[in-house]
Structure formats: structure tokens, C-alpha cells
Amino acid sequence: MSIIGSGLRLVALTLTSLLWSVTVLAGEVLPSWQDGAAKNAIVAFVNNVTRESSDGYVPPAERIATFDNDGTLWAEQPVYFQAFFAMARLREMAPEHPEWAREEPFKSALAGDMKALMASGMEGVMKILMASHAGVTGDAFHSEVSDWLQASRHPDTGRPFTQMAYQPMLELLDYLRSNGFKVFIVSGGGIDFIRAFSEPLYGIPPEQVVGTTLEAHFEMRDGVPVIVRDAGISLIDDKAGKPVGIYRHIGRRPIFAAGNSDGDLQMLQYTTMPRDAGDTRPRLGLILHHTDAEREYAYDHGSHVGGLDQALDEAPQRGWVVVDMKKDWRRIFPE
Amino acid sequence: MSIIGSGLRLVALTLTSLLWSVTVLAGEVLPSWQDGAAKNAIVAFVNNVTRESSDGYVPPAERIATFDNDGTLWAEQPVYFQAFFAMARLREMAPEHPEWAREEPFKSALAGDMKALMASGMEGVMKILMASHAGVTGDAFHSEVSDWLQASRHPDTGRPFTQMAYQPMLELLDYLRSNGFKVFIVSGGGIDFIRAFSEPLYGIPPEQVVGTTLEAHFEMRDGVPVIVRDAGISLIDDKAGKPVGIYRHIGRRPIFAAGNSDGDLQMLQYTTMPRDAGDTRPRLGLILHHTDAEREYAYDHGSHVGGLDQALDEAPQRGWVVVDMKKDWRRIFPE
């Protein structure tokens, strides 16, 4: 082989390995996402805010991303998983409450009659919530949720509930964090319910969870200082309550928000619509559209859980990225 | 020089440079703290929780430290600095409120008559607080506080208020962070007041500030989504409210807490008294005792601002470290 030939071969080899590296690198980012508009929009946004030479550069401290939980990070059908916990907790407590056998909404809840329970309306749901979530110390509640998560399975899939987190979203959390984002959960679900699993499941520590919050008080019990959860609500972290939760807990406006229902509408608006004309930071809103009845569930308009109406209608004009779970995701759940 | 002589010289040199390194290192830790019991207790605690071989090792995620603000991170005499802001804000608003010239507590507040204002009691203070802190957007309030901090000076020292942070405490914040701690403010002061300066002054981002919190709501103003601060209180983050604020915002028990008044008593108890007999993590409670009338102020029992009674009395039995500011601090304020 001539020197020129050998040189050309070296160039060819270098090019090949370079192309291979690029492919591997591209493959490493969000591997469970199909190549397409949604993935491209996410990657372009992240590149834009992280490149110091970019017009859209945002310093790391201001890279705040907020994620809804139910239906966005893990599944939410046939009902919010927290409702399964509440039912289990009521069954556990029932022997001490013989009156529940006759009293609604407890009677229906103990019988697992979800339809009758829903018919009891907000008042009924609140009674169930308070009976199952209040009146215990913070530490005891944390243990109850942890124990239930260990012992319970999803009625449709037979999986532990924590195995119903979405693999592509776990990758998205990692991708954002590896690009200097601080990632928060902002959920209509109970803040302390989510805190019992957010760190091992999502890598999100308790102090980065915002959610519906009960009143609580401090007391000394046998010389031990404890927090006791009270039967009153401090924040309903849903719909217009989500930006309030963000203001209370985070204190600055996110530049990225992801949700899947009208419960996330105001969080998406608050995140993606600039404060004033001078705020030119890039902002990304993302809506998961549940379109995959085979691998997960398909629902949107009018669904009693995770209803998606106004937010889906506003998405085009607001520039929100709509993720079609059937088309955009290679897989739904972890192996 | 013989080989042995040269070898000995090398050993001597190595020893010298080693000793020098140790001295420099020791000097670099908390340089504004006098060597003594308080500094030793802090350094021993940090070494204990950070050394993986130590019985007291605590993983970084659980190294939560909480600091009171007024009187702990910056001064609080002759009154809480937030009160100066409230007065300034009222004077700014007064032209739109001619009725305040006749109406208490506004009349006294505008005249700067602090004594008459205090006589108006909690009800009066709340009226001043709501008039000066509510009814504006979150963004507008943030700007108002920032502008005031730029323009105002402390009446006794003539310094900008941000120059009345305590140099030894700034070093302590850095020292804890460099040892993997996540540092929070937990203050009776207004959460959004503190957030206007906590990041540049203390390196504490807004999401790590807990404080007294107003109600708020979300609305669209001319197509711009905003948070509006309402005239109601969501949390009084003082005394027994501090552990509640910690539970709401942080969701786990700190292992380190610092305060200077009875407003911090329950936070110190909650932090340093283990959950149950099985919890053997090291815990440190620290009380700043204002003992230096020359360089700062001297006050404790019965002071109307930063009163320190029960917490000082409980300190010995609870093992809390009491910092004598006169003896333990080489300097008070930054140069």
C-alpha cells in the first residue's frame, strides 16, 4: 500500500469512527424517544439555553423545570394511584371505625364501589382524603405510603405502581439534569404522598416536590418533637393553584413545564408566557397526549381522570409541544 | 552533603510543607471564628457526618441545614429590617391614601413613631404588613424590595442592609455547602422579601427560602399570567410554625439548625431531637448569643426584637452550641 493509500485509509477510518461516535451520541440522548418533532424540539431547546454563545443562554440557577406527576411521570388510570392508597388505608383503619359500614362515603369506599364514591362528589372525596391522610405524624404517613407501595400492584398491569413510571420521561428528567436544570414535581397529588417515592423513583428529592398540602402542626409527643397532619387544606396544587404552588415553593418562573391535562393549563401558561416584552428567554411547554390504548391508555377530551381539553386546544397557538405517546415513544414503561 | 543528609533534608522539607499545609487548611476553615469550643463543635460535627468511615456518616442528600435570618444571618436591631421596608413602602404609597393621615396605625407608621405603632399590637402590625406587602404581583414586589435595598441605609451604621450580614455566618454557609450540605433559610420574615436578596447575599436560591407566606392567586392581566399577593396569611413561619414550614417546604428533618431567639426554639428542638431511639445521626443546634454591644448589639432575655429566653435556658440540657458573639467572632460584618 502506498503512503497516500494508507493516508486515505486513515482518513476513512477516522471519518467512520467519527460518524459512529455521532450516531452513538445521538442515540444516547433520550433513547426511548422516536426521532421526530417532539424530540427535536426538546433537544433544540436544551441546546439553546445551555450554549454560552447562544442568544437564548440561561444561567444554570434559572434553569427550572416543573413536571406534573399523574399522567405525566407515571400512569393515572383507571384512577389516580393515590386513590388506591386511600382505599387500602381505609380498609386498614376500618376495624377501629365500625360506623363506616353504614356511613357514606366510607361504605362505598370500603366496598370498592368507585362509581358510588364519585357520586358523593367533592365533599365525599374530601372525607375519604382526610380520614386516610390526616391525623397521623408526618413520619408515620411516610412509612404508610412506603409500605403500601411495596405491597401493592396495579389492577390492570399487575406491576408495582413505581414500575408504571414512563421510561421516556425518566430519560427526560436525566437529560435535563445533566444539562444543569433543577427539576421539580408540581402535582395536584398529595405533596407528602409523592415525597415517599420521588427520590428513589425519579431522583427528585422531597424539597423539590410541590403538591396539594394539608394543614399541619408541631407538637411534643412523649418528649419527641413531631409534625401532625391536620384535616384542613393549605394548598390545592391544581389548575390555577399550580402557579401559586410554584411561587410559594420555588419563587421563580420555570422555563420548562410538562403536563398532560387541563390541571396543568395555568402552569403551562405561567411558564411559557414571558413576564414582559423584555423577557426573551427561551421557554418550552410540553403536553403528553395519551394516544396509546394498546401499550397504555387513550384519553383526552372529557376524561374523568386527566381530562385534556383547553390545554390541547391552546397548544398550537402557544407553541406547546404535544407528545403523541403512540408515535413519539419507543416504549412506555421500564423493562 | 551525604545521601543520608540529603534524605533527611527531604524528610524535613516534606514535614515542614505538610505542617504548613495543615496550618493553612486549619486557617482557611471559618477564618472569622476564634479558635474555641463553638468552632471546634462545628468542625467536629461536619467531620463526623462527612467522613465515610465515621459512625455518624450522613449521605449528602440528607445533609439539610436550616438557618434563621434576622439576628442569625444578618442584624435585626433596632427593629427587623423588613419593618424599615414596610415604612418606606407606606411613605411611597401615602399620596394615594390621604386617609392614612388620620387613620391608625398608618398615621404613626408614616410619622415613624415606632412606639405608638407597637402599641397598636398584632392587629396594627398586620394592617401595616398587608398594606405594604399585598395587592401587587410577585414580580412587582420583588422589584420593590430590590430597589429599596439599593437605596436604603441602616440608621445606626449607615451601611446598606446587605452589608449587615455576619461575616462568620457567611463563612459557615460556605463551609457547610463545601461539605455537601444543602442550606435553607427558615425565617419568621417574609419569604418573598428574603428571596429578593438571598441568592446574591448568601448564595441561597429562592427555592431554599422558607418564611412567613401570604396567600396569593393566579390571574391573567392583559394576557400576561401573573401571581398576585393577597391580604391573608398562609403560614406564620415562627416558633411552632418553623417545623411546619420545614415539613411543607423541605419534607425531611434537618440535621443542623441555627437561630438566635425563642422564635427558633421549636426548629432547634425538631432538628436536634431524634425521631426515635433508632435514629443515631449526629445533629447540631446552634444559638447566636448577641453579647457584643460595642461591635453590634447586646440583648437576650426580654428583648422586644429577638428575645432569647427559653431557648437559652434549654441549650445546656439539649447540647446546643451557644455562640458568644463577642468572644467567638473575630469580626462581625464584612469589610
Automatic annotation (TrEMBL), chains A, B:
<dbReference type="GO" id="GO:0016787">
    <property type="term" value="F:hydrolase activity"/>
</dbReference>
<dbReference type="Pfam" id="PF12710">
    <property type="entry name" value="HAD"/>
</dbReference>
<keyword id="KW-0378">Hydrolase</keyword>
<dbReference type="InterPro" id="IPR023214">
    <property type="entry name" value="HAD_sf"/>
</dbReference>
<dbReference type="InterPro" id="IPR036412">
    <property type="entry name" value="HAD-like_sf"/>
</dbReference>
<protein>
    <submittedName>
        <fullName>Haloacid dehalogenase-like hydrolase</fullName>
    </submittedName>
</protein>
